[in-house]
Amino acid sequence: MIAPPEAPPGDAGVIGRSRDEPELFGAIFDAYFAEIHRYLARRLDAHTADDLAAETFAVAFRGRDRYDLSRPNARPWLYGIATNLAGRHRRDERRKLTALARVGPGAAAAGHEDAVAARVTAEGVRGPLARAVAALPAGQRDVLLLVVLGGLSYEEVAVALDVPFGTVSSRLNRARKKLRKALGDTDPLLDDQEGASR
Amino acid sequence: MDEIRMVREAYGEPAPPTLREMTRARALFTDEAPPRRRRWRLKAGIGLVAVGAAASVAIALTGPGGGGGTPGAPHAQVDLDREAVLAAASKAEQVPAGKYWYSDHITGQSYIMRTKAGTYAIAGAHTEFFRWAGARKGMGEGFWGRDLPARPLTAADEAVWKRDGSPKSFRVWSNDHYYTYTAAATDWKVDRPSAIGGGTFGRLTTRQVHDLPSDPAALAARFLKPKPGDAKGLALNTPRLKVLTVGTLLEELPVSPAVRAGLMRALARQPGIHPIGKVTDLLGRTGVALASDPVRNTATGEFGAPKAEQGTFSSRAVIVFDQKTGALLGQHEELVEPGGPYRAQRPGFVINYVLVRGLGWAESQPKPPARLPF
Fold first, then answer.
1. This protein's superkingdom (chain B) (predicted)?
2. Domain count within chain A
């Protein structure tokens, strides 16, 4: 590393130095842009993600002076910014989920036939699942999607959303419970027929 | 049950950012040049509809006169099995050799307006999608979308709407908040047309679509049965979900008439799936339909829903086919037992819908229609 010995480790070192040498921030961009874009593209759509991922890094760049250099890993910080920006696109997210509930993704990539079969099977639960996700309070949805789509740990989610660790786990538990309920309730055979015939 | 995995799979895998977008994004903070563009944003992707030009699957209503069926007869039997396959078999060799596949869909959701003039339903979240794709990679593809006006759902709803003063905007409860839909339409906007795309439908290539089996049992085993590795305890193979699955396949893939017939037969044979005779859709087209066993739904006040939106109702999934051609006309969720938010509606009330407005093969690059569907 070129960083002087006293510089903080990891991303924090780069961000710290980028305060004087702005072009160094490009390393943060290069390391995380694709990942942040992917999170936003899944949560909203690819084209909104183009704009919001760009905005995420513009916001981060402008806010690099305020970055807490005791945190070596910039990932939660960037996901937090992206999540806040996504929160302003609530209508887009609702429409995404509405569409998700009705139709499968028009994925561009050619896939293996077995993967398609599996996907189509999974599509069956999309309606109730997407409706349940849409119905979650924003705080619970943010936690859920940071974990599911972003792959963040509870600690990272806590940093990203600036909430206590305990809040993360309780929100996630509540969200999961609602999803399970929504999915379980979709089986009319078990409820109506088999249940009645026993 | 692994709902975390289910959510992850449902969201799918997006296309990565293009080099151009990355360059632009990087320039945003290096060059202070942020020209934000407003573009049509695609919803998660309406696939191609797999019926149309090649339509040749006949569905006959059995009964007096062989194919008549009394309009409105509640339980006219649809002989999907026999007639569909015979007709499809005779036409199976006429697999279209078109160049460009296109599909035109309308999606909408019903919302309830409760006014002094009375209660009526409107169609909101109303969108039309138009997609085309070349049969082979490199022939290009394009994806268009436009918002359609929110509107009273049926003629009866329109009458109450007029008594209400024919408002042009509709504030309605949607999941966990109020939302206002308006009677404004937007222009068609194309979403990142690709000159080098084409040749894939959903996740299948043209070749893979072509190679699908036409045998109903093989299709059912492939698409309508749980797979090892599916999350345990999930209701993956309920009748309702089977209707959605077959509808999605027919919407996404340009399958041959034989495969289409096979999918229809496979669905018709599933337990919990019933022919329900003739159905007239929101575009005024009459077709023959299959429906799932109903599902009970309960809306609680958990997410802040007002009293009027709470309660229990049951609904079923309906898939509608053109009687003469076997073409998919659409699918919708319809009310079976009124209650809850739909306590003032009658059985058969359409809760949400996908209407297939047009699709098929074309010789030149297709363009979306200017005329509004309603």
1. Bacteria
2. 1
**Sequence-separated (6 or more) residues with CB below 8 Å from residue B88:** B56, B57, B58, B214, B257, B258, B260, B261, B326
Average pLDDT over residues A104-110: 31
Q: How many CB atoms lie within 10 A of CB B350?
A: 24
In this structure, what token pair is assigned to residue B253? 């893939």
Write out the residue range of the structural domain in which residue A130 sits.
10-186
CB contacts, 8 Å: B109 with chain A: 98
Percent over 70 (pLDDT), chain A: 75
Q: Express each pLDDT in A23-69 by its tens digit.
A: 788 889 888 998 999 999 889 887 788 888 988 998 898 888 889 88
Whether the model clears a pTM of 0.95, i.e. scores above it, the answer is no
Asked if residues A174 and B224 have their Cβ atoms less than 8 Å apart, the reply is: no
Q: What is the DSSP string of A75-105?
A: HHHHHHHHHHHHHTTHHHHHHHHHHHHHS--
What count of Cα atoms within 13 Å lies in the side-chain half-sphere of residue A36?
Answer: 32
Measured between alpha carbons, how far is B204 from A106 in angstroms, rounded to an integer?
A: 10
Pick the closest to residue B230 from A99, A125, A134, A131 (CA basis).
Answer: A125
Of B14, B40, B199, the CB nearest to A38: B14
Output the six-digit token pair for B281: 């859709």
Tens digits of per-residue pLDDT, B86-140?
A: 443 344 334 455 788 888 889 888 999 999 999 999 998 888 888 888 888 888 8
In a domain, B238, yes or no: yes
Domain count, chain B: 1
To test the contact with chain B by mutation, choose from A120, A149, A178, A197 the residue with the greatest count of B C-beta atoms within 10 A, namely A120
Asked if the structure places residue B89 within a domain, the reply is yes
- pLDDT of B46 reads 29
pLDDT for A157 beyond 90: yes
- What is the span of the domain harbouring residue B238? 44-362
Which of the residues B11, B210, B230, B309 would you substitute to probe the A interface, choosing the one with the greatest number of A C-beta atoms within 10 Å?
A: B11
